[in-house]
Write a structure and sequence with these properties.
Layout (H helix, E strand, L loop, with lengths): L2 E2 L9 H10 L4 E2 L1 H22 L23
Antiparallel strand pairs: 1-2
């Protein structure tokens, strides 16, 4: 067990019940859960901040293609 917050914020009383139902809060945090949370935050955070950079992939450049005029169809 990494932390025990049952004396500060138990999951059986008012604020803990709301957090438990909305976010899955538990007053005991185990090492496997902590590693999972940190891994998730690093993965998703890295992807998010990479998308904020706005850099396009190196292999794909925005090269415009020549456009053909639309010909009207006559009966």
């Amino acid at each position: 067990m990494v932390s025990n917050t049952s004396t500060i914020l138990p999951d059986e009383q008012f604020p803990g019940i709301i957090l438990k139902s909305l976010f899955g809060y538990r007053d005991n945090l185990y090492l496997v859960q902590a590693v999972g949370y940190v891994g998730f935050l690093l993965t998703i955070g890295g992807l998010y901040f990479r998308s904020l950079g706005g850099a396009s992939p190196e292999g794909k450049k925005n090269i415009p293609f020549p456009q053909k005029p639309i010909s009207s169809v006559k009966d």
